[in-house]
Every structure is written in structure tokens, then in C-alpha cells.
Known about the structure:
By secondary structure, the chain is α/β, with parallel strands linked by helices. It has 15 helices and 14 strands. The model has no long low-confidence stretch (mean pLDDT 91).
Amino acid sequence: YAQHQFGDAENDDFTLGGLLAKESATTQCQSRGLIHRLRVRSPYTPSPDLITKLRDYEALHQRCGPGTKSFNRSMANLELAFNTEGRHEVDGECRYIVWLAHSGLGNRLVSIAAAFVYALLTRRVLVLDGRSALGELVCEPFPGEVSWLLPHDFTPLLTLTLNQSSPYKFGLHLQQGTLLPSVRDPPEEDRKSLFHSSSASQPSSLFSYIHLAHDYDFFDKLFFCDKEQASLHQIPWLFLGSNLYFVPSLYLYIPEFRQELNRLFPDTDAIFHHISRYLFLPSNSVWSWIMRYYDAYLSKASQIVGVQIRSFVFPPVVHPHLAQQTLRCAEENNLLPKIAEVEGRETPLSPRNATALLVTSLLPDYSEQLKKLYADHPTETGEVVSVHQPSHEGHQNTQAHGHNLKAWAEMCLLSFSNKLITSPMSTFGYVAQGLAGIKPWILTAAENGEAPSSACSQLVSMDPCFHAPPYYNCDGNKGDDTSKILPYVKHCEDVEWGLKVF
Ligand code: GDP
């Protein structure tokens, strides 16, 4: 396989130290037994507690997942609940968290990972909205025959309003005091954004909609408080609308969650790293695409330096300094061979030390500029740098399968890098760094269109940033900066109001 990586037997453990179950190496999912060979070996080993927890989860999924008797019974109960009043039989073991798709692919993947962590903490079964087309991008993660995708015609998703203004929203029931007697008083600035509805249904004992997306309100955020969280325990069906990596806030006010997270993830900043490598293996069609590209452009290199350039300006405009800033970042931190000031150095005919610079961006311009620089100038050491960009889609187009396929394939290709330079605030970059298991250099955001004085800085923690954490102290019933509670849950390096695990 790769020249840029291994092929050594020592590294040939597709289970990643027991993270993945032993059986079914490649039967249905070709990437499962192979993808680890192309990635830098992870410095993090999964804890024995995490491994046991995953095997237990897999057994639970086999008993309760879509298509099983228990699932069908639970689903029939749920459907009955829409039509009739009163109590229904509840299967105590099989409780579900149904993930609903929001936003771009990076956001989707980080929120699925967070939902799975929540499922592990609460012994729920994670199932995904089958309409999200995720099944075409990633393999079934759990061994056995039971899928994690809901059937396309899963009635509740077709008939219920499940969004910020849902009458079934957990936060709305808290706001109206129909679920728990409310002791929480939203701060003045939160009151304006509250949704007022006189038509809230009574909370059902069978299901609830949890809204944890960027536009959630004060009462939705009480999901992260102990007492409110406890009231969800008996409800067999939770529907979750989220585009956020909300794991950091699970640590703060729910002691049981904190204890369990500490037990499962002693390397606190490797949560997403383990979970993403466990859950997200490219499907066979994506894997074919990845391998064609890899074999053609990257496999001969002795190292891959991945660069992800995401400029959040709309309509997309080329930021004139970004290619230069990337190069400055690489040179200042010895990530790439330096471009020589003067001509004259001979370049060997068959260079052994070739670096492949893999650029991903919606726009072609940055990689073109970098390619031109390396074509026009030799490097100081005579080492060769080749520049590659798999696609330039122009703009985000989440509804199109071919577009998402490329986005996902590029996240995977970036995860084969030896070193990474990524853009601030981008979940696309978070997924690549988590899968890669390396701490990227993050480009410093420009201010007022000016190139920043420092080109980039390396992340201290590899875990993704939670972009919209609550600023509320559940114990003190008051607004608060939640980055001060635990030494390892702090503001993010790239998003100053965000929260992440260090
Ligand atoms: P974020 O917006 O950077 O947090 O990442 P998301 O993945 O949630 O949304 C951005 C979406 O835009 C991606 O999912 C892709 O659809 C598209 N996109 C952004 N950057 C790239 C890129 O470098 N390559 C490709 N193929 N698509 C991209």
C-alpha cells in the first residue's frame, strides 16, 4: 500500500486496539479492514471501559435496532400514542434517540458523534433519520444485521413537526411548566428569543423532541441540567434535532455523566477521535473514489500535508492572502520545505522525499496559487512538493449526493495526512482532524480583511469545539461562563465563545 505510510504488520490492526469489533472485517464494508493502513498511527488507545461499553452497546443495538421485534413493538406503541390517549406499554430495555439531519456534512457528523456519546451515557439506541442519505456515505457501524437507519417511511418523522417550533419540544414543556414545576428564570436577554405557543400538547410519556441546534433557546438548553435531564429517562423515544458537537456541556452539571465520561475517555481530548473512527467508515462507493484518487496522486509521496481552506464569506470570494498565509504557516512551523529565495539548486530526477500537498476548498484558486509557487521556485532542500485538489464545488450543495460524496471523500483523504492545516470554526476541518488523530495548525482568522500577524497556531486539544454552548449555571440558577467549572472544559482556541474538552 502506501509509500507515505506503513504497510508494516505491527500497524495492521484494523480494530484499532479493540475499538472496532473483531468480526466482519471487510465483508460488507471494504474500508473497514483497510483504512487504518493509510492513517498515521493513533497515539491514543481506547480505554478498556470504552471497549466494553461499545460491545455492550452493539449487543443492545442487535436487540432493539430497526427491524427487530422490540423495535416494531416500540414503534407500534409510538404510533398508537398519536391516536389514543392514556398509558401504553413501554419496553424498558429499548429506548431510542433518533437523530435528525441539519446543516452540512461536517455538522452532521459531529452531531451524530455527540448523539452517540449521549446514547452510550443513557443506554439508548441511536438511530438515524433514513432520509438523510447518510447510508450511502458511511458503512453500517455496528456488527450484525441490524441497521442504524430508520426505514424511509418511519411514520413519526413524516407526520410530526420536529423543529424549533415543535409543540412536542422538551424545552417548550419546561417553559410551560407541564413537565416539571419550573424553578428557572431566563435572564432578560434570553426572554426575547423565547418561542410562545398556546398550542403546546401535553408532554407525552412516549416521546419528546429535543432541540439542540444553533438556534435553540433558554429552555431547550436546560437539557444540560441534572434535574431536567433526569425527567427524560423514562421517555422511550427522543427525537434529536442537532447540528452541534454538544459533548463538552454533558460534563458540567450532570455528575453521573461526568463520572462516566471520565471513565470511558481518560484521554479527554480524544473523544471524537475514537468515536469518529468507530462510527464513520466510508461506504464502498466512497471508498472506491478515495482509493482512485489516493493511488493516482498521493500514494507515492513520502508525506502528505493536508490543507483545508474554508472561507465563510457569502457569496464566496477569494481571500487574497489565504494561500500566502497558508504557506507562511507551513514555513514558520516546518510543515513544508521552504521555497528558495534564489534559483540554482538542482532538483534530483527521482526525488525520494516528495511531499504531496493536499488542498481541499470549495474554490480552486488557493491550490492554483500554491501550485504555481512550487512550480516557479525550487525548495531550499531540493525536495519536491506536488499540489493536489480533488474538487472545487464552488458552493455548498448539501442536497446533492455527488457533492456530499466528494465532501466526505475529502475529509477522509485529509485524514491520511501526516500534518494538517485547517480553517477556524469549520466542522469539516474538525472531522478531518478527529479521523486523522492529529492536532492541526489552525489558520488565524483575518480581521477587517487584513492578513493577521500570526499565520496560524496549533490546537492544544483535538476534540471539536461546541459552537453554541449554554451560558447558564444550573446549580446557581443564573447566567454564567461555563468555561470556569472544570479545568478541562474551556473556551475553544478558534471560537472564543465556544466550549471544548482539553
Ligand atoms: P462547516 O460549514 O465548515 O462547519 O462544514 P460543513 O461540512 O458542515 O458544511 C460545509 C459544506 O460545504 C460541506 O459539507 C461541503 O458540502 C461543502 N464544503 C465546504 N468545504 C469544502 C471542501 O473543501 N471540499 C468539498 N468537497 N466540499 C466542501
